[in-house]
Each structure stands twice: as structure tokens, then as C-alpha cells.
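Renewal narrative, Specific Aim 1. Our central claim is that a sequence can be written position by position from structural information alone. The example that follows is taken directly from our test logs and has not been curated for this report. It begins with the C-alpha cells describing the chain, in the order in which they were read.
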């Protein structure tokens, strides 16, 4: 079964290499032509295995569609961390369809940044779903799905590592099921669905009027390798990479006020509760009594 692989980033890279290591018939790979390093990664694998790599600004362009249909002739298309939307002209080409892998328990958290959103919303579990691609956004029939627990102390980097373990094996398993005609596709229930949009670095701005728990979830959701949660003190930006909820109910001080500074940690009053900041980055001095602002 001839596979055309579309992907990017580390997740695309490790999944493509795993398929090749499992002797899957990958005829070529496709990545977006972009300066955004987030969507690079396939080049290392295609060079290592002498695999043809296409760099396309628009996969739905007539010229690429014709090349895919008439020259490449894939039996299956796989998408892993690919940043373009497949339109019906591409979707209808392979006899065995097109499949995508998404880091959520679909139909929940369709769209962009599903892991970040799940942590931000305080979810206790997320997961990985392999599904067929249709003309909707993450709405196709489900092939495989596995859960991942989110501990209260997990940061986004921890969940990414768990996801990295799932992606290659689940895609390889889905390919085997499709090849052997053993897929039992499951329709997604519309009433259970949710959609979340793209996040930007500016979304990491801390609103100190929120609860300590909500701010803690934001910090966990956008910490390394993402741009980070941040605030301002005297017009200087301060990034908070790690923290703990010190008190969930206290509200006797102004939100954003540093209650106590001790060596390399400090406590901050939130709208409800207090946060202990244990890892931060700034070029300005901070002291007990200082008040963060939102600029």
C-alpha cells in the first residue's frame, strides 16, 4: 500500500521514521514551504532514507493535485502535524482515504493547540485519536483512540512526551488495520464536540484577577517549549515557567501583589488564592510588596 506522508515538527519526523523502520511503503513526504521552524523536521528523515520530499505552499493547488493523482498515485495519505487543510480534490485521490492523528479525545478539542487548551481548562485526561480526513476540521470517523492522564503536576512538556510515545505506534497500527481491511470506523458525536482556535504568544499574558488555580493552569499550558506565561513589573516583562498553588482561597491582598519574596521564589496574590512562583525569568529586580500589572 503506497503511502504519501504529509507532516512537520518532531511528531511528524518521528512518525515518518517509524513507518520507514517498519518497512511501510512510503513513496514520498510532503511539508509546507515555510520559514516557521515549528513545521520543519521531515528533511532529516528524508535525507537519511533517500526519500523524495515535496515542499508545498498550497497542497490544494491544481498543479500539486494533478501530480498527486497522476504521478504519485498514493493508496493512502497520512497527515501528522501538517498545517494545511485538505480539500476534497486531495481527499478523494487515495483509494484507502486520508488519515490524520490529533492530540485530543475527539470530538473534544478539535482545532488548534488541543494539548495546551486541555491543560488550560484543567482537564484530568486527554488522548490521541487517529481518524479519517473529511472536509470538516477533525470531524472524520475515528479509527483508533487512546487516553492519556494529565496529573496536576504535569506541564505541557510532560504531556508532549507522552504523546510522542503514542503517535508512531498508533499511526503504524492504523496503517495495518486499513491494509488488512479491519477498520471499524466510529462516527463522532456532534453533541460532544468542541472546537478551539490557534493560540499566540500574547495569550500567555497573566490576568491576576483570576484564581490561583486558573493561573497555574495557564503557566503549565504554555511553559517550555512554548513561549510562556508572562506579566509586567515597571514595564519590564517577567516570564513565569513553573509555580505551585500555595493557597486556594486567600483574597486579603490586591491581585498581582508580591506577598513574600524569599531567595529564588516568591508568592503572589491572585483574585482568589495565592501562587508560589518557583521558576521565572526577568531582567528587573523584584521585592516584597511589588505589584504586577497587565500593561
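The sequence written for that structure reads:
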Amino acid at each position: 500500500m503506497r503511502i504519501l506522508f504529509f507532516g512537520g515538527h518532531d511528531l511528524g519526523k518521528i512518525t515518518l521514521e517509524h513507518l520507514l523502520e517498519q518497512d511501510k511503503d512510503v513513496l514520498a513526504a510532503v511539508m509546507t514551504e515555510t520559514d516557521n521552524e515549528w513545521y520543519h523536521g521531515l528533511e532529516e528523515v528524508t535525507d537519511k532514507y533517500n526519500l523524495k520530499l515535496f515542499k508545498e505552499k498550497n497542497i490544494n493547488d491544481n498543479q500539486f493535485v494533478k501530480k498527486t493523482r497522476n504521478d504519485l498515485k498514493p493508496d493512502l495519505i497520512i497527515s501528522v502535524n501538517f498545517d494545511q487543510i485538505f480539500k476534497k480534490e486531495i481527499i478523494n485521490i487515495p483509494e484507502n482515504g486520508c488519515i490524520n492523528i490529533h492530540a485530543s479525545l475527539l470530538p473534544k478539542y478539535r482545532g488548534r493547540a488541543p494539548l495546551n487548551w486541555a491543560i488550560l481548562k484543567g482537564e484530568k485526561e486527554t488522548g490521541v485519536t487517529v481518524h479519517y480526513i473529511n472536509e470538516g476540521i477533525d470531524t472524520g470517523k475515528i479509527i483508533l483512540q487512546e487516553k492519556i492522564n494529565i496529573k496536576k503536576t504535569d506541564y505541557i512538556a510532560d504531556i508532549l512526551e507522552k504523546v510522542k510515545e503514542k503517535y508512531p505506534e498508533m499511526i503504524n497500527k492504523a496503517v495495518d488495520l486499513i491494509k488488512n481491511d479491519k477498520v471499524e470506523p466510529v462516527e463522532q458525536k456532534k453533541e460532544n464536540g468542541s472546537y478551539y482556535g490557534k493560540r499566540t504568544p500574547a495569550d500567555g499574558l497573566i490576568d491576576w484577577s483570576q484564581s490561583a488555580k486558573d493561573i497555574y493552569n495557564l503557566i503549565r499550558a504554555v511553559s517550555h517549549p512554548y513561549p510562556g506565561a508572562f506579566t509586567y513589573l515597571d514595564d519590564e516583562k517577567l516570564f513565569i515557567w513553573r509555580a505551585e498553588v500555595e493557597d486556594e482561597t486567600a483574597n486579603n491582598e490586591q491581585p498581582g501583589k508580591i506577598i513574600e519574596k524569599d531567595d529564588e521564589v516568591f508568592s503572589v496574590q491572585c483574585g482568589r488564592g495565592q501562587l508560589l512562583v518557583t521558576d521565572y525569568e526577568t531582567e528587573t529586580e523584584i521585592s516584597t510588596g511589588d505589584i504586577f500589572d497587565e500593561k
